[in-house]
């Protein structure tokens, strides 16, 4: 029985994680849950999974949740303190890091420092402070399993092979809802258009990131840290069908890929149960019905965010943290209709150019860079309003 703490349990990844746990009650026990919003769903999850502790973001929600649960209430906490308590909870052997944004960094780091294995969905943790996170993983001897489908695919394609034989990683990208739109058309797109992802059903932030292709940029940075390869050995192919989840090319020209239908339950389950595979009751991949799979190069003109991420990765130090923070603010502003779609890469370009990159030797530096990036982006957005 693996005891699990789920950070971000009401989100898209959190809900899928709990679905898997519910289908395999002999294998997983949920000991802690946290959520930032959606109290009703959280209350339902608490009744169903009976964790020892649950944490909400806001103090007022702590009281409401206790009221909702009545006698069934476990320990209920709030704020950063509550989140941290769930991240380091004594009973937990594994922490599923499924909060969205750089807010996931501090609790994920705390979980690593307290010796927990991590199932990592929160890519922003590695984007913001990848070097420090991986150093802590090594030092504590914990396991960090990727949940992101591309990284799970690479993780699987590396198994049984020698790292020294890897030539490059190829991340696949669906291209999002605007894959075939002309640059001029992109100017007009609305948040609703951008949220309508063709293949994956996900939280709002990552859906917008998929539309700008910043998601793939963040994933390139995530891959750099997870697999310890430089930016110039990580490529991106557009693959509209989202069937080949990513690939590893070896020095002899062999390319090993992982394929499957686009459903996050597969990579989540693999992270939870590695090295075993869980039966998941998903529809089988029917390649014959699909007929063909296609691949092409990403268009850097229409999707400037991808190149910005490569640039930040090459600059190293605090640059990726600043880019990520500015992106979170810009995405929020786009969702609030304060910003047009094409203004997102514009803002990021300007924030990245204005930043004086520093070294990243302590988590405080990552948090400072994160704050700086947020403020810089906010100022630019306010000035344009
Ligand atoms: P989501 O928005 O659906 O859920 C996020 C969860 O975190 C919710 O429970 C929310 O209440 C909580 N939360 C949000 N902000 C918080 C804060 N500041 N403090 C504490 N809790 C907070 O997001 P998601 O789509 O499930 O994505 C979660 C993470 O997984 C992201 O980093 C995303 O990039 C990554 N990811 C998601 C998918 C996917 O299919 N959804 C795929 C790959 C990677
Ligand atoms: Mg992904």
Q: Low-confidence parts, pLDDT < 50 over ≥5 residues? A: none
Q: What percent of the residues sit in helical stretches (DSSP H or I)?
A: 40-55%
Return the average pLDDT rounded to an integer. Answer: 97
Find the count of extended strands (DSSP E, 2+ residues). Answer: 11
Distance between the termini: 54 Å
Helix tally equals: 17
Largest sheet: 7 strands, parallel
The CATH topology of the domain at 2-146 is: Rossmann fold
Element-level helix/strand string? EHEHEHEHEHEHEHEHHHHEEEHHHHHH
Ligands in the model, by name, code or SMILES, are:
nicotinamide-adenine-dinucleotide, magnesium ion
| CATH class placement of the domain at 2-146 | Alpha Beta
Question: CATH homologous superfamily name of the domain at 2-146?
Answer: NAD(P)-binding Rossmann-like Domain
Secondary-structure-derived class:
alpha/beta
Described by the principal axes of the CA atoms, the overall outline is globular
Neighbour order of strands in the largest sheet: 4-3-2-1-5-6-7
Gyration radius over CA? 20 Å
CATH architecture of the domain at 2-146: 3-Layer(aba) Sandwich
The share of residues in extended strands comes to 15-25%
Can you give a write-up of this model?
The protein is α/β, with parallel strands linked by helices and 385 residues long. It has a domain at 2-146: Rossmann fold (3-Layer(aba) Sandwich). It is built from 17 helices and eleven strands. It has a seven-stranded parallel sheet with strand order 4-3-2-1-5-6-7, sandwiched between helices. The longest helix is centred in the last third of the chain and has 22 residues, at 363-384. The mean pLDDT is 97. Bound molecules: nicotinamide-adenine-dinucleotide (NAD) and magnesium ion. The site of magnesium ion has 4 residues, from helix 7.
